[in-house]
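Below is a typical protein record.
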Amino acid sequence: MGPSTSGGVLSREQLKMLIEDPDRPLLREYVDLDGQLQPNGVDVTLREVSRHSDAGAIGVSSEDRMLPELETLPFDPDGWITLAQGCYHLVYNEVVDIPDSLMALGRPRSSLNRCGVTIHTAVWDAGYNGRSTSLLVVANPGGFRVQRNARVMQLVFFGMSEATADGYSGRYQLENM
């Protein structure tokens, strides 16, 4: 798999090697790799914003899970969207393909926080492959403007002390692809 990735946060150099792996790139469909690589992760970019148009539900069993309907919001002709205070569903441009020896956590870019906006995420499990989504919360009463393809969140990849025998195989495998 190339560089050693066991036990710790992957560096820019390790990430670049894994992303440029011709056999199984860690990340693809990125906008500008050099601009997105950071010392401790890789920035992911905004592809789509939606509004939740009804309620969701989570029960004890997976069969009781109901995701809310989404209404995709349009960008203006210059690629911008203005969001009022509230919650939004984001889809990223990048597709991640995480090997069984890595996992990732997503954190909002600090500029979002300074604008009164944050992103909530789940864990990117070892073995996950897909175009991920997150929850964007605009807390700023004045709203927020964001442009398509803007870098909004940083994925930080961690090497695991040993690869998992059973990587992610849940409902969201290959999502948005």
